[in-house]
Amino acid sequence: MFEIIKPGTKFDFMRRKWIAFLVSGIVTVVGIASLIVQGGPKYGIDFGGGTLVQVRFSQQVTIDAIRNALQEGGLEGASVQGFEAEGKGEYLIRLQTSSSDVTGLSTAIKNALTKRFDEKGFEIRRVEMVGPKVGKDLRSKGILATIFAMIGMLIYISFRFDFRFAVGAVIAVFHDVTVTIGVLSILGIEFSILILAALLTIVGYSINDTIVVYDRIRENLPKMRRVPFENMLNITVNETLSRTILTGMSTLMVLVVLFFMGGGVIHDFTLTLLVGIVFGTYSSVYIASASVLVWENKFPKKQR
Predict the structure, then answer these.
(1) Is residue 15 situated within a structural domain?
(2) Residue 175 shares a structural domain with residue 249
(3) How does residue 72 score in pLDDT terms, banded at 50, 70 and 90?
(4) What's the pLDDT tens digit per position in 95-118?
């Protein structure tokens, strides 16, 4: 029988914890620096307000031609993004507008495109309009949802396991979310409601992966009372390593297929999940368990 990780492996993960912390720290700082340089996340229509129009052309046209047509129609500052869809040219047009400009904007876009292209040569497939006040409200609720999720996990894990485990789990989740947002900032991906959904999915995946490791640690604690705490953690992580890798690989295979074949609408959503799952799997091995070890060394319990 083929096994990815054979029983009895003895990788010394805890000995390399400071290297892992250093790598995670560098990646986190680079991501935060990118956010600072860009003045914060690049908000999409959902959080920044404005209008999103998805247009399909029967023939391939250039982005410059679409942008020029919009400018000639009096629609300045339009962002145009193209992607392939069923062999036809499909484009997303984004316009940042105030609430007073939202009404009738899709008609203005259609009229501007009609002047340059044949009306039968394109089709407006989707129109999304969000006012700036609604966008700001969604942004605030999204941030609160993430914060409350972390607080809830801190309380639950403190009750279910131990406070030191809760601290490690929250640090791991915070690490995964921060790194993922930083990567999105570096890549210039807009922060939309789909990205928020992906981040909350990452939070759930990361904490689930971490709980599996923590549950095995709890089982090993009474059985390995005379084993040094660091050695016990290494044994536990090695015992759960096969499950961790198999879960991560099976999830990544699905996401890779969606990334290449799912279309442009879910492209950013899938990319966010890919980044988050990779770092979530890494953090459950290094960040979560290693944080428990650091806490134990700093504040040792009298009895284990």
Answers:
(1) no
(2) yes
(3) confident
(4) 766 544 555 666 777 788 887 777
Note down the domain range covering 77: 50-130
pLDDT digits (tens, 9 = 90+) for 263-289: 767 888 899 999 999 998 888 888 888
The reply to whether 172 and 286 lie within a common domain is yes
**What is the per-residue pLDDT for 99?**
46
CB 191 within 8 A of CB 44: yes
Q: What is the pLDDT of residue 273?
A: 92
- pTM for the model stands at 0.77
At which of 130, 159, 177 does a domain end? 130
Q: Which residue has the tokens 């409601």?
A: 193
Q: Same domain, yes or no, for 118 and 264?
A: no
- SS3 for the chain is CCCCCCCCCCCCCHHHHHHHHHHHHHHHHHHHHHHHHCCCCCECHHHHCEEEEEEEECCCCCHHHHHHHHHHCCCCCCEEEEEEECCEEEEEEEECCCHHHCCCHHHHHHHHHHHHCCHHHEEEEEEEEECHHHHHHHHHHHHHHHHHHHHHHHHHHHHHCCHHHHHHHHHHHHHHHHHHHHHHHHHCCCECHHHHHHHHHHHHHHHHHHHHHHHHHHHHHHHCCCCCHHHHHHHHHHHHHHHHHHHHHHHHHHHHHHHHHCCHHHHHHHHHHHHHHHHHHHHHHCHHHHHHHHHHHHCCCCCC
Among 85, 115, 130, the domain-final residue is 130
Q: How many Cβ atoms sit within 10 Å of the Cβ of residue 76?
A: 9
